[in-house]
Amino acid sequence: MDTAFIETLWVTLKLATLTTLILLIIGIPVSYFMAYSKFRLKPILEALISMPLVLPPSVLGYYVLVAYSPRYWFGDLLSRFFNVHLAFSFEGVLIASVIFSLPFMIQPLQSGLRTLPDSFREASYTMGKSKIFTFFRVLLPNIKPSFITALALTFAHCIGEFGIVLMVGGSMPGETRVASIAIYDEVQSLNFDTANRYALILFAVSFATLILIYTINRKQESWKMI
Amino acid sequence: MNRINVEITKVYSSDGIVLVDMEAGNCPMSAMLIEASEIPRWIMPGNIISAVFKETEVSLAKEFSGKISLRNKLPCIIEFIERGQIMSVITLRFGEEIIHSAITTRSVDSMELKQNDNVLALIKANEITLMQQ
Amino acid sequence: MEDDLIEIDVEKKLISASGILNLHIKTSLNFGELVVVFGDSGAGKTTLLRILAGLTEPDRGLIRVGNKVWFDSQASVNLRPQDRNIGFMFQDYALFPNMTVHQNIAFAQKDKDKNYANQLMDKFGLTEFANRKPTKLSGGQKQRVALARTLARKPDFLLLDEPLSALDMNMRTALQDEILKAHQFNKTTTLLVSHDLSEVFRLANKVLKIDQGIVTGKGSPDELFLNDKISGKVQITGTLVRIEKHDTFYLLTVITGTNQVIKVTAFQNDIENLHEGDQVLVFTKAFNPFIRKIKR
Asked: How many angstroms separate the CA of residue C25 from the nearest CA in chain B?
């Protein structure tokens, strides 16, 4: 019972941490592109990234499951060449979770970059600095609040995920069973005690994360200078 | 300001001071200028330019006789008098042109100025500015 | 001969709230000059500076600095700002909030020459603020940091976009001295945008007058601004702020470029085409004004 409890928390934590890390790596270049590119089809891309905000998790989960299925080309490819079956596996849930949390990482970063005056970038360029150097030394340090908001929101959102994990991963102990699903299962089995413990922990973690965001955003000096 | 068309007839210059003789209609006029460096090219005999002077620098004389150092004596007819408490503005016809003179209302009364009077408008040469047209 | 010439011939169509402006700047400047770009707002001054910096791409044209081509639309040459070795001072200063004064200046340096950074801070009176973040500085201090930062990489070409606009008169005069000093110190070719005439006379070797996107005059401040179309030698430009009717005349209040208030009488025919807010020229003859010392 207790090992199962800890195992579930571990899967939850692992999923949230890995999702956040992967999204960090994807999110930085994508948000840079979204903030500054004048690409004509950008609105379509923006809409796609924001879809998880409005779409029911079950819809997205359904499409992900379909994609994983060996009956279609993507799943078929994976199964034939790599012998990988993503449905009802941790990796499968991780990929779905990354897709589902995309807007929580991209949107704060993108809007943070957009609030910086163009003259920051331009000044750095006139000082002979490359775009990448400018991004890491001038732009990113000046959107610290957005950066932390993006990280914390993504993390908190992952911890609270329910629908998509259930759709794609089911509730396999030690593999895809995360705390939010465990609560549901425990309540179904009338184990209110355990459900209560999960709920308390989820509540505390989410609450603490949000307090962190608001504290940092308040302390952070504004870049506005005039 | 008053602005009338004049034709330059002669330009004298000595040590930065320039005296410009001009004609407005048939009436001779003069302007004294300071031109430390070069005299601008447009100030030369034969050119039609504007002579500009302030209303407050135009004195009036009626039935004038005797000698006066003033170089600019323009014969005018009074068209209209706008009386103020202290200052009055007199509209004058000078040939084809209209000029104005601002003098004290007291003078208007003591000289008994009225419409259609013949008067001389008097302006010192150093009060006249020249402008290219 | 050609080696110390900056040749500019650029065109760009600008679309703004006030309409379309066809910018076409064609001129040449000599190395080492301090050129003030003068014109009304919206005339294209800032755009010209940005084009020279490589931050805005012209539609077509040529920029040649000495024997180096910076931009040539026909040969598809367009040097990045990074490759032009310039110093650009932005209207909003663009100081980086995450860095201290010293770090801002050091950031701009090519070689991390600590001595030179300290020299610059010393010269602009910034040493005591070296470890302060820009948000903790006053407007004047920020402007000094921004100016010092543009010099930090020892640029060949200094582009200053209204560097002194936010300052009061005293500070302005002091910083004008700094700009002159900086210019005399390393003879960097400098282009400075201004719409303040006193600044033009104070700083410029040469004035580039721009109106509606076109160069309408180039020369010394005397040549360009002493109006020789009027023989009156006392000429003051200013803004007409008030027209009051008094008895038979009008009393006009004009604020001059140096923020002096002057009063001028005018008559009916004068004020017919004058409105409050107009830019006006107040002139009289050199004979008339009195003069008296007020300060030594």
From this structure: 29
